[in-house]
Amino acid sequence: MATPTSNTLPLADIHLQTAPGIWPLAWGWWLVIAATLAVIIMIVMWLRARAKKTRAQKEALQALNAVTSLADMNALLKRAALSYFDREHVAGLTGAAWLRFLDEQLPASKEADGKHGFSAHQDLWQKGIFSKEGLSDSEFATCKALTERWLKHALPPKASRASSYTSAAKEENHV
């Protein structure tokens, strides 16, 4: 019997193409990268603007802890208000007009009912600032709580509340 011979042909091995690399990126990926960078830049800009806007509020809240008299507290409120509102309007406010201004700046959700606002405690503020006898500890705590609430919720002012006290609104009304 004859042995079968192998019929082998001299063929070369099959070489597959290399898998496509990640580089160069397709145009769609460039759009995704650009959009992501734009969003990151916008978030960083927004955070910086927010930090700048709330800086005076944070400083005032820290300074409130060191306040020992109602006159110092009133000066702190005035400095904080001058940081956000038009100087020509705020600097001249005193007495009942000043306390009314403070009440008006609180948002509707945080507005004091008639019993708990600055205007409702006008006699207390006058006594604390101008009287020789000063305030009791509970009266001082009430004034400090009012101040803290105002610093937390009225600053920075919303555009709708601040617009009536800025120079831009004043120029619009001036004709």
From TrEMBL:
Record-linked Pfam families: DUF4381
Keywords: Membrane, Transmembrane, Transmembrane helix
Transmembrane segments: 27-47
Superkingdom of the organism of origin: Bacteria
Name of the protein: DUF4381 domain-containing protein
Protein's organism: Enterovibrio norvegicus
